[in-house]
Write a structure and sequence with these properties.
Strand 1 (413-417) and strand 2 (420-424) form a beta hairpin. The chain is α/β, with parallel strands linked by helices. It is built from 24 helices and seven strands. The protein folds into two domains: 37-403, no CATH class; 413-577, no CATH class.
Length: 579
């Protein structure tokens, strides 16, 4: 391996961090590549539901509301509590939220730099470039819990490997704390992080167990607090039963992805007007198919090959391969994310760990076979593979946001209200919101209760939580701020009662064309539509019924229950998708 001047023994193996000019240049290069598109990403269209609830939910936590009791939240409480504190310090703004998301992304990138540093600076910088293309593109700078959990888990792995070779209890304790925090962000990461830490600590399990467990207990403090506040029944129901049992049929996509079409609704919408890409490439749906297969092969191949190389060496003292093996085990453990919904976001969420490691693995094999360092070959192999199987979902979006950052492309469409702002990719959507805002402002008072949902509430496929963010002085009137198929739209979900108690309802046709090969195409209970018809009058329609504002009125809008299915324009579901 390359002998380092700045770190005689790499940090991951117990060495100290020391300054050197070459090391500083390498880190600066990583930071420069990661930051090139950031100016554009700060002003890119956000996911109206996912990024919206990472703005709204921490605000509700600040106000004393409890996830899984006062509002639906399918993930752990950790990210909400951390963001609630972040907003207290830096303000409740889109920019503050995206700054936190940027820090999460950089934490992933630099964890992978640290894990691949034993193969030299070139390999580590190359791994960071690959990571940047996979981390910065699928969700931009949205501060989603998954990126936070992966960042914490990877640094937990770094400290576990460090403890394995340094044999210090403090590193095991740090690994446990970080692992616990990762689980408080996303409990579904439990298998991946547990198996990875067991792999790291197996040789010294007697010494490692106590500090690891104590550290994990401390790291899980947000979860213990949540279990007390919400109660174990509500917490398990919201964090385990809802996402794993009730939600899955309405969010699953075919695995492998369909070769002849794009299955995911959001993916199909994005590809309707795709960004410019100058290089010949397979169709978007073909890329998803081949990328899915490559993600599986690499997620399995990296830890399996590292394990085999360790065994072949005939010694358990193989620190470089330990880093690949343990981190690779974690990458394999998160593979179910790609299996249950193989759209580009979930494929990137898995590839962001295994693919940067692959470059280091190729470098290692090259050294063994050719007896010389060839880190460039490992980096090049991975970058070429990405150019073949996933250029639209990596390079193209990196190029898009970089062009926006340097002023080579116009900005997307901004909706602004006082100090609240949100970026949208569709001008009609932005225009509808801009036209609706003064009407809702004129009629509402602080503390009024608002429900935002789909135009057809028997198909709650998505929700525009960003509207709650824009009207922060209004109280969300429903448990289902986030709306999902099989949850909010089901019979007896409580959504109809929430609507009946609201003061205003905003319904959008932004997602009426949502068509996926799962149960989300099925219409569920009409009681939610009837609750609107029975209690509310239409105030305004905007952009040809793209958005509708309703206000509570005596006797409702005079629409009978029999006619309720016909009051909103709804895109018909094709017969082949009507399951």
């Amino acid at each position: 391996m390359e002998e380092t001047a700045d770190v005689a023994v790499p940090f991951v193996f117990g060495g100290s961090v020391r300054f050197s000019a070459r090391g500083a240049i390498a880190l600066a290069g990583v930071l420069l590549f990661a930051m090139l598109p950031v100016r554009g990403l700060f002003r890119s269209p956000g996911s109206s539901m996912e990024e919206g609830f990472m703005l709204v939910f921490p605000r509700l936590v600040q106000q004393g509301q409890v996830p899984n009791v006062d509002f639906l939240h399918l993930y752990g409480p950790g990210s909400l509590h951390v963001l609630a504190g972040w907003y207290k310090v830096f303000g409740y703004t889109l920019e503050a939220e995206r700054a936190f998301g940027l820090l999460q992304n950089l934490a992933i990138i630099f964890a992978l730099y640290t894990l691949t540093r034993p193969w030299g600076r070139v390999a580590a910088v190359g791994a960071s470039v690959v990571a940047s293309l996979l981390v910065m593109t699928p969700i931009g700078l949205a501060a989603l819990a998954w990126h936070g959990a992966v960042a914490l888990a990877l640094w937990s792995v770094v400290f576990a490997i460090r403890a394995r070779h340094q044999a210090t209890l403090s590193s095991w304790a740090a690994s446990g704390v970080l692992a616990g925090l990762a689980l408080s962000f996303r409990p579904d990461i439990i298998i991946a992080i547990t198996v990875a830490i067991i792999a790291a600590g197996w040789a010294s399990r007697g010494r490692a167990t106590k500090p690891l467990v104590l550290g994990a207990i401390i790291g899980l403090l947000p979860m213990w607090f949540h279990l007390v506040m919400a109660g174990p029944v509500a917490a398990i129901d919201g964090i385990v039963v809802d996402p794993v049992v009730r939600l899955r049929p309405g969010r699953e996509l075919p695995s492998p992805p369909s070769f002849g079409k794009i299955d995911g609704a959001l993916q199909a919408i994005a590809e309707a007007v795709p960004p410019y890409w100058p290089v010949p490439a397979p169709a978007a749906n073909h890329q998803l198919f081949f990328w899915f297969l490559a993600v599986i092969v690499i997620a399995i191949g990296v830890p399996a090959t590292a394990w085999r190389l360790r065994r072949r060496s005939g010694s358990e003292n193989t620190p470089h391969l330990d880093a690949l093996w343990v981190a690779g085990v974690f990458g394999l453990g998160i593979l179910p994310q790609a299996m249950q919904r193989p759209d580009s976001t979930h494929l990137a969420w898995v590839a962001m760990v295994s693919w940067p490691l692959l470059g280091a693995l190729i470098t290692h094999v090259t050294i063994q076979r050719l007896r010389r360092v060839s880190a460039v070959s490992g980096v090049a192999a991975v970058l070429i593979a990405m150019m073949v199987v996933s250029p639209f979902y990596t390079y193209r979006y990196y190029l898009l946001h970089t062009r926006v950052a340097v002023g080579d492309l116009p900005l997307p469409f901004l909706v602004e209200r006082d100090d609240r702002k949100f970026w949208f990719g569709n001008p009609e959507v932005a225009n509808a919101l801009i036209a609706m805002i003064p009407d809702l402002e004129a009629r509402s008072e602080p503390g009024d209760r608002l429900v935002v949902g789909t135009a057809d509430l028997s198909r709650t496929v998505y929700s525009d939580v960003s509207i709650y963010f824009l009207f922060d002085e209004l109280e969300p009137a429903t448990y289902y701020i986030e709306m999902d198929p099989g949850l909010a739209d089901s019979e007896g979900s409580g959504l109809a009662e929430d609507i009946a108690d609201a003061d205003f309802v905003v319904l959008t046709n932004f997602w009426s064309g949502w068509l996926e090969p799962n149960t989300s195409v099925q219409r569920q209970s009409q009681e939610h539509n009837r609750a609107v018809a029975d209690n509310f009058c239409l105030v305004g329609q905007y952009e040809s019924n793209l958005l509708m504002l309703f206000e509570r009125c005596e006797g409702g809008g005079g629409i009978s229950g029999a006619d309720v299915e016909g009051i909103y324009p709804v895109v018909p579901v094709p017969e082949e998708l009507a399951l």
